[in-house]
């Protein structure tokens, strides 16, 4: 499974390629962007997402995403109630 980190804006239907469904793997570090207490809070401003299909290099560039192949170190992840 490949995960993606949005760099400049939160993931939404308007900030990802048309027809791509997505879900959070890590909730955004910015509170208020996703109410997902069931997920670890990301160290990344807009969280980490997975998509319904792999994205091309062109899509990564056009939509401001970078690939995260492996999970972050556990010491860098927090639950929603923790403070980094």
Give an overview in words.
The protein is mainly beta and about 80 residues long. The chain is built from 1 helix and 4 strands; from the N terminus they run E-E-E-H-E. The radius of gyration is 12 Å and the shape is globular. The chain starts with a strand and ends in a 16-residue tail after the last strand.
Helix and strand layout, with pairings?
Blueprint: E1 3-6, E2 22-26, E3 48-51, H1 57-62, E4 65-68
Order of SSEs, N→C? EEEHE
Strand count, sense and barrel status of the largest sheet are: 4 strands, antiparallel
The order of strands across the largest sheet is 2-3-1-4
Number of helices: 1
The count of strands amounts to: 4
Summed up, the domain count is: 1
Radius of gyration: 12 Å
Strand content: 15-25%
> What coarse outline follows from CA principal-axis ratios?
globular
Helix content: under 10%
Q: How widely separated are the two ends? A: 26 Å
- Tell me the structural class: mainly beta
Mean pLDDT: 83
Q: Which residues form runs of ≥5 with pLDDT under 50?
A: 73-84
């Amino acid at each position: 499974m490949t995960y993606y980190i949005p760099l400049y804006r939160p993931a939404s239907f308007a900030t990802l390629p048309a027809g791509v469904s997505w879900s959070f793997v890590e909730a955004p570090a910015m509170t208020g962007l996703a109410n997902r207490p069931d997920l670890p809070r990301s160290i990344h401003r807009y969280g980490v997402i997975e998509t319904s299909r792999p994205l091309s290099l062109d899509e990564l560039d056009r939509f401001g995403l970078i690939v995260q192949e492996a999970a972050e170190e556990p010491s860098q992840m927090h639950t929603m109630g923790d403070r980094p």
